[in-house]
Amino acid sequence: MYIKRNLEQTFLEASTYYPVLALCGQRQVGKSTMLNAIKENDRRYVTLDDLTARRLAKDDPELFFETYGTKLIIDEFQRAPELLLEIKKIVDAKALSGEENNGMFWLTGSQQFRMMKSISETLAGRVGIFSFSSFSQSELEGVFRPAFSTDLSELKQRSALKNLNSVHSVFERIFKGGMPKLNTSRIPRERFYMDYVNTYLERDIHDLEQVGKLNEFYNFLVFMAARTAQELKYDEIAKNVGISSPTAKAWVSILERSGIIFILHPYYANITNRLVKTPKVYFLDTGLAAYLCKWPNAETLENGAMSGAFFESFVVSEIVKSYYNSGKELNLYYYRDIDKKEIDLLTVSAEGICPIEIKKAKNPSDADKNFQVLKKFNLPVKPGLILCMCNELVPYNRDVWLCPISLI
Questions:
Q1: Cα angle at 222 between 221 and 224, to 5 degrees?
Q2: Based on the number of CB atoms within 10 Å of its own CB, is 343 exposed (0-12), middle (13-18) or buried (19 or more)?
Q3: Do 75 and 186 fall into the same domain?
Q4: Mean pLDDT in the chain?
Q5: What average pLDDT does the segment 263-269 reach?
Q6: What are the pLDDT digits (tens) for 292-307?
Q7: Contact 114, 107 (CB under 8 A)
């Protein structure tokens, strides 16, 4: 069963004005499935997981394209970066001869930052790059959603997602996660995640020279899952996992470029040195994080010590996915100062700053207590939001609104 992805139309539109498109994201989130579902009949598909295709791509890029053609999906492209210069040559030759060259190559990769860096450098001006993640809740319910907006008039027009109407149903979604295979087949959850972690360690991580023992990296992965929605402190990671701080930084970078985690940076300005500059880390798929932390079921997770952190991770990941699915750049930050005044999220734009708090409660109290700290930035402060389990979008006071997470 194929579930329609929110990125489809944006991706197809970009294919009409870019010669090359790159779709980057975590393993098994449905990159090649989406591209094969929306491709034209004359577009071929090749995966560089195939040893024969990969050998040809590495040894003779010119013959590779003679063999497979130039209206092509190339899956797991990061396995043969040698193709980049040949792609550039083909694209430029078409342009010089006056021929149409848009939409020639669609590339996918699960090592996104390494892939994006090399592609951006070689194909500058010729490539559109998109990030991709597991299913958002709107996709699972068959509802198209643009990027999350703090604009009240837009939020009022949204219909609530029916499966996020109670905290119990939310934690069922948090526990299961958004991986396509889990949501479109009958595979047991434990079986899926066990295979997923083993595949990730053996195929993606084993190839990276920064990683020595895989069991050490697995312990690191578990530790990071237990720190979702927390500040990212490399010394703490190093001490608990038994690795050096430089190794901790290198391994965090691997998780980020694999699409496993999202790093949320703090908002700060030169007007004050009292702000914390440590980023926060979020698992993009809460089901994977819950599996790594060995939570046995959704009910135990909901009532456990980490319920608030997982709820916050779920909300942040849904917002991040909405940006990814719209092909838009993220403008998300968080705020914390040395007095421990914190705001979960800030959206920052030319119109001003919008503070956002995330609360598991239905009627949170004193949730906007830190919003006034934003006045020192001398920027307009837009009406704030409390994302929570309330039933409808209603005023909290004159400057803040309660917003159900079902509207994300």
A1: 65
A2: buried
A3: no
A4: 91
A5: 88
A6: 999 999 999 999 999 9
A7: no
Of 163 and 203, more confident: 163
Q: How many CA atoms lie within 13 A of 228 on its CB side?
A: 35
- For residue 82, give both structure tokens: 């040698």
**What would the mean pLDDT of 163-192 be, rounded to a whole number?**
96
pLDDT at residue 269 in the model: 67
283 contacts 310 by C-beta, under 8 angstroms: no
State whether 239 and 367 are in the same domain: yes
Whether the pLDDT of residue 376 is over 90: the answer is no
Structure tokens at 31: 């990159």
CATH number of the domain bearing residue 98: 3.40.50.300
Host domain of residue 118:
8-132
Instruction: State how far the Cα of 12 lies from the Cα of 51, in Å rounded to an integer.
Output: 29
- At residue 243, what is the residue type? I
In b/e form, how buried is each residue of 209-242, taking b as 16+ CB within 10 angstroms?
eebeeeeebbebbbbbbebbbbbbebeebbeebe
Q: Encoding tokens for residue 389? A: 């389990």
Stretch 234-239: mean pLDDT, rounded?
Answer: 96
Place of tokens 């001003």: 352
Number of domains the chain is built from: 2
Residue 139 is assigned to a structural domain of this protein: no
Last residue of a domain, one of 97, 132, 167: 132
| Same domain (yes/no): 252, 363 | yes
Report yes or no on 125 lying in a domain.
yes
| Domain termination residue (choose one: 87, 109, 132) | 132
